[in-house]
Design brief:
Order of helices and strands: HHHEHEEHEHEHEHEHEEEEEEE
Mean pLDDT: 89
Radius of gyration: 20 Å
CATH architecture: 3-Layer(aba) Sandwich
Number of domains: 1
Largest sheet: 7 strands, mixed
Helix content: 25-40%
Structural class: alpha/beta
CATH class: Alpha Beta
CATH superfamily: ANL, N-terminal domain
Amino acid sequence: MNSFIEIEKELLQINENNFDEIAWRLFHFQATNNEVYNQYLKQLKVDWRKLKSIEEIPFLPIQFFKSHAIKTGVWPTQKIYKSSGTTESIRSSHHLWDESCYLNHSATSFEYFFSSLDQFNVLALLPLYDTNHSSLVAMVRHFIAKSNSPVSGFFLSDLTNLTAIIDQLKTKERKTLLFGVSHALLDLADQGPFSFENILVIETGGMKGRKEEITRTELHERIKKGLGVSAVFSEYGMTELCSQAYSLSEGIFHCSPAMRVIIKEINDPFSMSNSTGIINIIDLANFHSCCFIETQDLGKVTGNGFEVLGRVDNSEVRGCNLLIAP
């Protein structure tokens, strides 16, 4: 297997034609060199050398990030991201070999769906996040830096200043991106109605018990009505992943090139599902940790995308995903 530096360069070349080949090489590499994943495969009594297809690969339950440092190989941790959550809950920890790899990859993923970040003013409405350990905050901070705009920045709970700046930017040539956690966007929308029709709004989930749980459809309708925008987009990501998916319309998420979703049966995590099941994610940007993650989210594949329908019953609620299905 290539060195991490060479794998990082290879991420930029991933497409539909070579995804399977790269994923297969990374699986063999991690099955050998990732101690936690290797032990998990042994506990399952899986002889990974005899597997024939990507669909047969066992996915590591995401809960392991709460109890272990998930690393492929031996290397000094440069950065640790931690999941959001209550003080009573155990937070997931994602050890990174090189934070810049995550940040650059996140920017590339965003630009794959939208356009170059230097064409945007980037406004962030992300109150109450752990600014030292949040992968979301780090990503948006990187977006702000890449925008190279003097008005880009974080606004926390300063909705008055935020609305004033958005109003000033409505007629400017440069596009404006508002990246916000769901409950904060609702707080902003409730102060409307506004006429922010030229603003690109991306919600990241994260009701976090701050408001009543609502469907994503209802959430978007309330934000659209309050902010005066025609569409609200969504970002799907988590502490344990380095890639993100984005919904561009009607709640259907699309994966960036280094990411793929596979749906497995709820009661049999080793069987493929043609309907609703557990979202399993192949994230090739997780080459330093584990590329094959079983989430606690329910979903289904729809066309060339996927829907997020809620969470597995009795699983601990993760802070960044409390939206329920219609």
